[in-house]
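Recall from the previous lesson that a structure prediction takes nothing but the amino acid sequence as input. Here we apply that procedure to Pro-resilin from Petrolisthes cinctipes. The sequence below is the only information supplied.
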Amino acid sequence: MLKGLSVIVILLGVAALAAADSRSIEFRGYGVPSSESRSYESRSFESYESDEAKYDFQWAVKDDSSGNDFGQQEAREGEHTQGSYYVQLPDGRLQKVTYLVDGDDGYIADVKYDGEARYDSVSYESASRENRYFDSYSNESK
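The prediction returns the following tokens.
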């Protein structure tokens, strides 16, 4: 039984090769590039070039009910980028970062804090109100 099946598979393979060989198949392979396509003078590089990067944006979020207060501003022209961002920290201070990037000179940041850090229970009132956590081992809320 297995020998008969092998013979059938071999005969089908031979028939497929014979059918493929009998048809005229035109192969359009990769040829040698023409002299026109290799000439740099005849090429237009305008389509590959782009203008230098230039943008300016800013955004901000201020939500008194949650205490969220943060934002960013950035401008870029070519390789020169300048910007700043700020965030209201949980301890009451406002962190302000002003930065500059000029080509390959790296990222230069100036970090400042406005206000005095407070660690009283008033600033964490919402956290103590919702003082529950999820215990993943027992699947119970405590």
